[in-house]
Amino acid sequence: VTLMALRTTSIATAMFVLPCSGVAYAATWQSAISVPSTVEYDSNPTLATSGEKGVTRYIIAPETSLVATADQDEFQFGLGVYAVRSSDTAIVTDREDPRLRLGWKHETETGFYGLTARYEESSTLSSTVQETGVVVPDGTQKKTSLEGNWQTALSERSTLTNDIEYSHVTYDINSLTDYDELSNRVGYTYAWSERMELFTRLGIKRYEPDSSSTLAQSSTSYTPDVASTISSPSNCAVRCMSGSMTSPTPTVARVPRAACR
Questions:
Q1: Cα–Cα distance list, 132 to 2, 5, 75, 166 (Å)
Q2: Which residues contact 213 (CB under 8 A, 6 or more apart)?
Q3: CB 111 within 8 A of CB 152
Q4: Residue 255, Cα to own-chain centre: how many angstroms?
Q5: What is the pLDDT of residue 255?
Q6: What distance in Å separates the CA atoms of residue 194 and residue 180, rounded to the nearest whole number?
Q7: Which of 35-44, 167-176, 238-247 has the lowest mean pLDDT?
Q8: Which of 46, 232, 22 is nearest to 129 (CA)?
Q9: Measuring CA to CA, how many Å separate 30 from each of 16, 33, 65, 101, 251?
Q10: 191 pairs with which residues across the strands?
Q11: What's this model's pTM, rounded to 2 decimal places?
Q12: How far apart are CA 85 and CA 78, in angstroms?
């Protein structure tokens, strides 16, 4: 299947943040409100091969967040909405998609561990095309996820991490299949020197379609990664990464990459 790139241009963006903090019940509270907005023009949102029609989206995504810190514990709360107004509702409908985030993090002497729960809705016209390349009508994807993460320092130079996430996804379109997904990623980082860091990670992901589906099948993918990062005094970092994915689909190989920051 050949994936066609969406042609989207952002022409305006605005944001403001209102921070405040206080102390109550031996906890430190920090809050923020952000209201990013943008205007996008997509020349062919449905990836039509003929009779292309462009759509302008007017987007505003207000979000409020609250962080409470008490000793070694941190509690996070986020609530927002992703509102879209379309110039052609026959192609892209007007939307108000809610987003909710709840998190907890506990610091330890050698690292941390925590949990994060999320709920968000999104347009299938954008999310499904980006994830699979399959063009579907503009419906709603509802995703609920729970993620646990853990990190500990094994020594002054080495660190071990583990992330596990469970996701439940449903659609309001009959042509798309609801599914559950469970993933686990274990990583190990070693600081070879002040300027060189070695990293390796193994990811395992299990896909389980809804039991009523007769088309989709369960699958498991394995993704090993090996990488090294070399930094220079000028704050330029070069990262080389290699890996592959083993699943019922053909193997996907990764190429080395470099970046400066």
A1: 10, 12, 34, 20
A2: 177, 178
A3: yes
A4: 22
A5: 40
A6: 42
A7: 238-247
A8: 46
A9: 16, 11, 8, 16, 45
A10: 197
A11: 0.74
A12: 23
- Residues 117 and 6: their CA atoms lie apart, in Å, by 30
**Residue 25 and residue 173: Cα distance in Å, rounded?**
47
Distance CA 11, CA 39 (A): 6
Q: Number of helices and strands (H, E) in the chain? A: 1, 16
Three-state DSSP state, 131 = helix
Find the length of the chain: 261
Q: Distance (Å, rounded) from C-alpha 246 to C-alpha 250?
A: 8
Gap between the Cα atoms of 143 and 258, Å rounded:
33
**Residues 189, 158: contact at Cβ < 8 Å?**
yes
Tokens of 29: 């509270």
Q: What is the pLDDT of residues 42-64, one digit of tens each?
A: 888 777 778 788 889 999 999 99
- Exposure of 80 in the CB half-sphere (CA atoms within 13 A): 24
- Two structure tokens written together for 28: 């430190």
State pLDDT tens for residues 94-150.
999 999 999 999 999 999 999 999 999 998 876 555 555 555 677 899 999 999 999
* Single-letter amino acid, residue 106: H
